[in-house]
Amino acid sequence: MSARYQLTGTTAVEISASIESGIRTDALPPGTALPPVRALAAELSVSPATVARAYQELRQRGLVATAGRHGTRVRPRPPVAARRGALRPPPAPGLRDLSAGEPDPRLLPPLGPHLAALAADAGAPITYSGAGVLPELAEAARARLAADGVPAGELTITGGALDGIERLLGAHLSPGDAVAVEDPGWANLLDLVAALGLRPIGVPVDDEGPIVAGVAAALAAGARALIVTSRAQNPTGAALTAARAAALRDLLAGRPDLLLVEDDHAAELARVPLHPLAGATAHWAFLRSVSKPFGPDLRLAVLTGDETTVARVAGRARAGAGWVSTVLQRLVLALWRDPSVTELIAHAADSYDRRRQALLAALATRGLVGRGRSGINVWLPVPDETSAVTALRDAGWSVAPGALYRIAGPPGLRITVSPLADADIEPLADALTRALHPAPPPHLTA
Hints:
Blueprint: H1 12-24, H2 37-44, H3 48-60, E1 64-66, E2 72-74, E3 96-97, H4 112-120, H5 135-147, E4 154-158, H6 161-172, E5 178-183, H7 187-195, E6 199-206, E7 209-210, H8 212-220, E8 223-229, H9 242-252, E9 259-263, E10 283-289, H10 291-294, E11 301-305, H11 307-319, H12 326-337, H13 339-365, E12 377-381, H14 385-394, E13 397-398, E14 400-401, E15 412-416, H15 425-436
């Protein structure tokens, strides 16, 4: 903890407020270790129970996490606006940044022509009473989902995948409920689960998706929701196979108390077939966002599911934000209808596949086994994340440490392939090999 920041307070509310203030002002940046309960209690002249209540309140709000002997630390991305800490620092000069997990901007469709066309045909302004899901967008979305075997009767629109997941969890669960999530899994989702006061239960993932025994264990531990990434799982690149989907369907059948959420965030960028779980439980939802294929600034996701679940999400939206901008809906519809955009996204998908597979092959020739069946990331198991990340930075590469994505899983690195050129593959594989297997120091001779 920063030596310059003094925690204060004589009640649990005051102590938690002091810690939150430190997080907000970046005096307690992400990853900062907080004092042990008894040590802080002695320092503030309060009972250990008071400090424990303060830490518990902060955990329930997703600001801190407790990890056994590692103590209590500020979460990597706590749900509170910070003056500086919330801003992602730019990579150090000279470093190749493979940590962001973002699509290649060169392969995103240009929006200018479609925006100009929308401006030329804007029509009458939309009123509050006339807003909502555009019928033509819903019709196109249903057709696209049906082509992948997803039943899409009831349908609504949310402001991206994470917005949809938040609304789904809020519609079915209460603070303290357990949620089964992939481990390793999407860092933003882990942060959201914490911020909602829910309890994550990690489910191990292999190349075919969540492991059936892990899902069964999570259900036995009381999970009331299961969140599965259909394809291009972040960070491992896993994708559900037909066999794994069938086994999970058998396991989930007859679970009226379970909410099943599928996230197909990669959609058109995934060059593996979709094997949906949709309908395996009474309460289910399937989300497909447009950000990865069409651009991160397009905050829109299609959400389909059972009648009750979709009605709850749509009703909650009406009581809050109301609707996703119809201007954005029209823009997405125009992109869907443009054959040149479809061709560009197919090219992008092929490009990501080529780069990801080339990196995996280069690692394999050096005795390193990475994972990445689909998507834009490669997951590389490592014995020690800190030393590997440091060695790679010294060699000119920035990658994401696996700690951002893990609950109880083994360590690893997430490497985003979208910034890589073909000529980068071999030098990167060499740097990764040296980072994981550094040369021993030379022997000293008399």
